[in-house]
Design brief:
Elements lengths: L12 E3 L15 E3 L30 E4 L4 E2 L1 E3 L11 E6 L2 E6 L3 H6 L3 H11 L6
Antiparallel strand pairs: 1-3, 2-5, 4-6, 6-7
Amino acid sequence: DNWDPETVPPHYLKIGQPSLRWRITDQNAAVTLLEPAHPLLTWPNPIGAEDWQGWVKERGLYFAAEWAADYTPLLSMADPGEEPLAGSLLTARFGKGRHTHTSLILYHQMDFMVPGAFRLMANLVTPPGTG
């Protein structure tokens, strides 16, 4: 693809390569909230351990391997026996808004009606301060 970590995202963000190394294939992999009070993890739905239950197939693909200090990593997870990866959900201020990058396979979870995927998607698309 034409992903250029210097020009495609608003801040430097490099997708890990080879892609086989930068993904979580265990749908039951434990997820750690790195910033549990962050609005994307609290509004309108508080995201907790129950939101990661019932996932199908995998957690995510093409995780970011490197990113600018502007980004805040929100999650960490690991396949069994592997080091944790923190590049699945990153967010940064950009102008009057923010750029959020996710490698989570939300669409697949939504196809299988996994409630946590819908709850997280709602958080990602809800403008801050709308409550």
